[in-house]
Amino acid sequence: MPATTLVCPHCEKTVEIQVSSVTRSRPCPECGQMVMLQMAEKTTKTKRRALLMTQNEPTGAAEPSAAAAADQEPQPLPGDAFDRMRMDPEIQQFRKRLLIGAGVVGFIVLVLVVWSLLPSEPKKEETLASKLAKAAETQQEDKPAAVLPPGTALMQPEEPTPQMVSPGNLVFRPPGSEELKTASAMSKVEGGDLAKLAAAEEVLGKFLATATWKERVLLVRDRLRVAPLMSTYYSKNPDGAISFDSIVEATELSPKFSQHVVVLEGGGRRVATVEHTPAGPRVDWESFVGAGEMAWSDFLEQRQAIPTLFRVYVSPAGHFENQFGDPSRLQCYSLRNISEPGAKVVYGYAEKGGPISKVLDYQLQLSEDATVPMMLNLKFPPDAPVDFQVWIHKIIQPGWVTP
What we know:
Residues 58-79 are annotated as: Disordered. By secondary structure, this protein is an alpha+beta fold. The protein has 3 domains: 1-102, no CATH class; 193-289; 296-398, CATH 2.40.50. The chain is 29% helix and 22% strand. The protein has helices spanning 66-72, 81-86, 89-117, 128-142, 193-209, 213-216, 223-236, 285-289, 296-302, 355-366; strands spanning 3-7, 14-18, 25-27, 34-36, 171-172, 181-182, 244-252, 257-264, 269-277, 280-283, 308-316, 330-336, 346-351, 372-379, 389-398. It has a 5-stranded mixed barrel with strand order 11-12-13-15-14. A 4-stranded antiparallel beta sheet has the order 7-8-9-10. It has a two-stranded antiparallel sheet with strand order 1-2. The N and C termini lie far apart (114 Å).
């Protein structure tokens, strides 16, 4: 390793220092301070010679010879200083680590970009139809499988088109009228069903024509329980005969019940259910007037927070405000009560995806006009700010007729 003679900038003594092609600094043999031998700037690529100090000759000393002076002159190191610095093992190791890190980061970025460009499968949203289908499947699983008698065909043969009843075969005299009318055309039935429906229509006509509720109560089913309800109802609503135009439809729901459509004066329609008892047909008064556990107007005025039973028509709605302002959490329905003339329509709410909303949505899906009669327990929230928003607390049953 060559030795270079130079003057230490710290102690100002002439010293010999061992240098190499990559040496940047060495300690002074006299004072121990580090002496910078070479510098280089990478940004500007400025070439600099070694920082060698000229020797300070003592005063009065003999003039050195030319050869000695030449030997003591600072000598530049061969090659470029930046190239020598680049060959430093520490710099090479740092450069290697930097390249590896940059490569890893670039690979991660490339993977993320490719992943974002790949087509993803669309998320299958659970639609209302699928929810209703699941609810129907659950109900079918809970019910025992029906067992058909041996030899029963799954597909029944088509019945011939029903024929009109010949004039004079079945006639009746409407209450308050002197004219005889022919019964409406119905499907051909066996076992006296036609006579049963005619008897039900006759009792229903008497039920509508009675002048007071005290006379009407004799023609209703379960009259001992219903009589107090009728007394309370007619204390708040007009009593008297119910004006109607005709009874246009008659359907046998079961051997015990039949359903009839009453056309009221003015074009309105009301469904009446008749129970066939050993004592004769009896009209279901509660379902005919849509009665509940209390008056509809009283319930809205008092904003009852206790669950109360009502018969209402349910249809879909979308009104969200106050405590019921979150459509992502709640399902909204329109509730219409017919027990009072001009009764106010309110909005009922249930948890979206909950058991109540599933049943209501399933029933609405089965309905042709998206309106179903239901018996529900309703209640107002505490400190309700308005009288037209209620909780649907419980579903009693579809339909208005209790078994």
